[in-house]
Design brief:
three-stranded antiparallel beta sheet, 11 helices, binds benzoyl coenzyme A
Length: 472
């Protein structure tokens, strides 16, 4: 493999300097990216030094370099995981054939669409989060937000590299379009639903990083199995960065839960809003919202698109190569949740068209593990409350539950009952206003907003009161 070249304007391990055409395309795109970053990236703080981690190696040790950096100077670059010698396609009709190093002509359009859909989410999330810096609960959290933002920027670079390197003029046009769509814009919205929702406060941000970034983990892991080797290697490296984003989400919500429990015990009340905290039922409503919109990101339960992606060898299952079956799935079934009159029932469906649901199942199990860890925080405080994931049919917009109303327990209900209970289950305008009212910036070293506990440890062995962002 070529060595990582950090001295180039675009750090990379894909021998960019030997590919003049690609280099030119990326050099043309780079100023447009920086312009987008200035316009739509984190508002304020662009000239401040932030203690950031930069990827400097893609080997199995994958070490990263920490240091102060201004965000626009972050070394966005192109890094692919090391190639696996003689890698073969592991699933679908091409199982056993050598992985493709070039795009197979007949799959060009399908593959491009998958890459564009993935790429679109990355700048979208930066746009959604761009105002959060103004209301950070601490310098530690501010730094974590910016780390997530610059890495999402790099993930955009990763997809633009694939488009520019392998899809010619169409690819370059798609790369431009990725900088032109805008989260939440009526005329040119981002492609997937959850990426047009607002992320107005830090509770939403932590929920988004826990639930929506975890969709990213599962989608990237499926694309990391792709028979198109450059996509597989790109996604494998992205997954190492994704882990930190989910850490930010899980520990962020965990610290809020912890602080809520402290306030409950200190003041002997379930209602901590009088004391500037976020009640557990309110946290539950935010879980309900973010879990359900993230479930939609997996697509319909029954999807011929998903079957095609798999059969063509473009997108595999989570941990495809660890599974012990024929990796073609033509003669097997899979249990899928479906609507059976007035109730939700399981039904065996052909496994190939059920692949979205299967990935969603993997995701739900992973989410439940995180919720169990939040519940441990509550149990350790001696409080008898449990947070839960709502039923998968609750508050869905995509797939077979998109047209029905379902309670968090999974009961199909009437529109009238939904209207009467909706505010018990999902954040209301008043809830959002209350959470919004707590969002007062705390930027003094070592200080944390009242509604969130400090982290158990700092970043890279630094203390919690480290100067993670230099404001002076
Ligand atoms: N919103 O057959 P269906 C991340 C469309 S997150 C709007 O059910 P399919 C990140 C669908 O496109 C991971 N539209 O679905 C996280 C299709 O449209 P067409 C992002 C939707 O195709 C945090 C139609 O409905 N990566 O990385 O099997 C921060 C019927 O579709 C939605 C990927 O998604 C929706 N929720 O699966 C930063 C991976 N769902 O064809 C980053 C790449 C479906 O009729 N994408 N539709 O025009 C895919 O694998 C697939 O496109 C999907 C949909 C899984 C998203």
């Amino acid at each position: 493999m070529s060595a990582t070249d950090y001295l180039e304007r675009i750090p990379n391990n894909v021998s960019l300097k030997d590919n003049r055409r690609l280099l030119r395309a990326l050099e043309e795109w780079q100023p447009k990216f920086l312009e987008w970053w200035q316009d739509m990236g984190p508002h304020g703080y662009q000239a401040k030094d932030v203690y950031l981690r930069t990827a400097v190696s893609v080997d199995t040790q994958g070490w990263a370099q920490f240091g102060y950096l201004r965000m626009p100077e972050y070394r966005w670059g192109i890094f692919l995981a090391e190639p696996e010698p003689n890698r073969a396609i592991a699933f679908g009709d091409h199982t056993g054939q050598p992985a493709w190093q070039e795009v197979p002509g007949e799959y060009r359009g399908t593959l491009r669409r998958l890459i564009v859909t993935q790429g679109d989410t990355e700048p979208a999330s930066v746009e959604q989060q761009r105002h959060l810096g103004q209301t950070c609960p601490s310098l530690y959290d501010l730094r974590n937000l910016f780390q997530v933002n610059v890495e999402e920027g790099r993930h955009l670079w990763a997809m633009v590299y694939l488009l520019d390197a392998y899809f010619g003029r169409d690819g370059r046009e798609e790369s431009e379009a990725l900088l032109q769509r805008r989260s939440g814009d009526r005329d040119k919205p981002r492609i997937l639903g959850a990426f047009n929702e607002r992320t107005p406060d830090w509770l939403s941000f932590f929920m988004f990083s826990f639930f929506t970034d975890r969709d990213g983990k599962y989608q990237l892991a499926s694309l990391a199995e792709s028979g198109f080797d450059p996509l597989a290697r790109t996604c494998r490296f992205m997954l190492t960065e994704e882990a930190h984003h989910m850490f930010v989400g899980e520990t962020g919500v965990g610290r809020i839960v912890q602080r809520t429990c402290e306030l409950m015990r200190e003041h002997r009340t379930d209602d901590v809003s009088a004391h500037g905290g976020i009640d557990l039922p309110m946290i539950q409503k935010y879980i309900n919202f973010h879990f359900s919109v993230s479930l939609d990101l997996f697509g319909s339960e029954i999807s011929t698109n998903a079957a095609n992606f798999y059969t063509l060898g473009l997108k595999g299952r989570f941990e495809e190569t660890k599974k012990d079956d024929d990796h073609r799935l033509k003669d097997v079934t899979y249990p899928v949740a479906d609507l059976d009159g007035e109730r939700v029932a399981m039904r065996e469906q052909p496994a190939l068209v059920s692949l979205n649901e299967r990935l969603r199942d993997d995701y739900v199990v992973d989410c439940a593990r995180g919720v169990a860890r939040w519940n441990q925080v509550i149990a350790r405080a001696g409080i008898d409350v449990e947070l839960t994931l709502p039923h998968r049919a609750f508050h869905r917009a995509i797939g077979c539950f998109g047209d029905v109303r379902v309670s968090p327990e999974g009961r199909v209900i009437s529109q009238a009952e939904w209207d009467a209970r909706r505010d018990d289950w999902l954040p209301t305008k008043a809830d959002e206003a209350y959470v919004g009212s707590l969002m007062q910036p705390v930027t003094e070293r070592g200080k944390f907003a009242n509604w969130i506990a400090p982290p158990a440890r700092g970043i890279n062995g630094q203390p919690a009161d480290f100067e993670y962002v230099r404001l002076a």
